[in-house]
Amino acid sequence: xxxxxxxxxxxxxxxxxxxxxxxxxxxxxxxxxxxxxxxxxxxxxxxxxxxxxxxxxxxxxxxxxxxxxxxxxxxxxxxxxxxxxxxxxxxxxxxxxxxxxxxxxxxxxxxxxxxxxxxxxxxxxxxxxxxxxxxxxxxxxxxxxxxxxxxxxxxxxxxxxxxxxxxxxxxxxxxxxxxxxxxxxxxxxxxxxxxxxxxxxxxxxxxxxxxxxxxxxxxxxxxxxxxxxxxxxxxxxxxxxxxxxxxxxxxxxxxxxxxxxxxxxxxxxxxxxxxxxxxxxxxxxxxxxxxxxxxxxxxxxxxxxxxxxxxxxxxxxxxxxxxxxxxxxxxxxxxxxxxxxxxxxxxxxxxxxxxxxxxxxx
Length: 362
Hints:
By secondary structure, the chain is an alpha/beta fold. The protein has helices at 52-67, 77-83, 92-112, 116-120, 140-152, 167-181, 197-207, 224-231, 247-255, 272-284, 295-302; strands spanning 3-19, 23-35, 40-47, 127-132, 157-161, 186-190, 212-216, 238-240, 261-262, 311-314, 331-334, 337-340, 355-356. The strands form 2 sheets. Strands 4, 5, 6, 7, 8, 9, 10, 11 and 12 form a 9-stranded mixed sheet that branches. Strands 3-2-1-13 form a 4-stranded antiparallel sheet. The radius of gyration is 20 Å and the shape is globular. The relative contact order is 0.15.
C-alpha cells in the first residue's frame, strides 16, 4: 500500500475541572492517512495547553509531502525522524511523528483485519489500572471525595499529587487519603518535578509512615545527578519517564539505578514504534512499564508488553470522558482492570464535531 493523502487537524478538549496550575484543556491533533488501497488510518498527537498548532503544521507542511507516494508502513519511523532532524530530534518533532506513526500502525492492523493488540501480540487479557488525578490544587475534602470515587470504582491503587509549598500540607493530605484507602490499598504520589533534593528527602521521610508505594517525578526530569543524590536518601521506588523522550534517556536513568518503574508517554516518545522499543529495553533490565495517560491507546499497548506494571485511569480526562470519540473504543476499565476488545486497528474514531484549535495562521 502507498500513502495518497495525509491531513492533520488540531482540536481543543475542555477539561471538566482544571488541572493544577490552571490547565483547563487538552489539545489533540488528529491525523488521517489515506492509502491507495482505500484503507484509512487514524493517528493522534496530544498535549495539555501548549504546542498543538505547531504539531499540526509539522505534519501538514513537512511530513505529509514526504509520506505521500511512499509505503504506508510504520517501518518508516527512522526515515521520518531523520527527515525532521533539522527542526530538532525530540519535543515537537516527536509529537508530530507520533500522530503519523499511530496512523500507520492503524493502517497495518486494519489491512491485516486484526485489532492492534492482536497484531502486536496480546500477552494478557487484562492489566491493572490505578485511579489518578491532577489534584494538588484540590481542597482536602475534594481530594478525599475523588479518592473515594476510585475506591468505589474498584481501584486497588491510586495516585495523588504532592509538591505543595509546605511539606506539612502534603503530609496532611496523604494522611487523609490513607484513611480513605485503608491499609489494604496502595498509594502512590506524584511531585511533578516540584521538589529539590533536600525538600524531597524531607517529604519522603515524613510520608513514610503512610505506606507510600512509590514517588513519581520527585525532581526536575532531566537532572540525573539530582536523582542519584536523592536515591541515597530514600528507599522509596522512583517512577520516571513521562518527560523522557528517547530510548537512550530511559537507559541512562535505569543504568544509574534511579528508575524503578518506567512511564513513557506514547505521544511524547514519538509513537507506538519507539514506545515498543523502550518497553523491550526496560524488560531486559527488569524494569516494568506503566504507560503515562492516554488509556484508550496506552492500555492496548500494556496488554502486549513483556513487563508491565499498571495503566493510568485519569479522572474524567480519557478521550471518551472528554467527548472526543465518535464511537466507543472497545477499551474499558472496570473494577480496577483494563480490557480491550476493538475491531480492526486501534478502534479510536474521533468525532467530527470537535472544536478546532483557535490559533493564528489558520
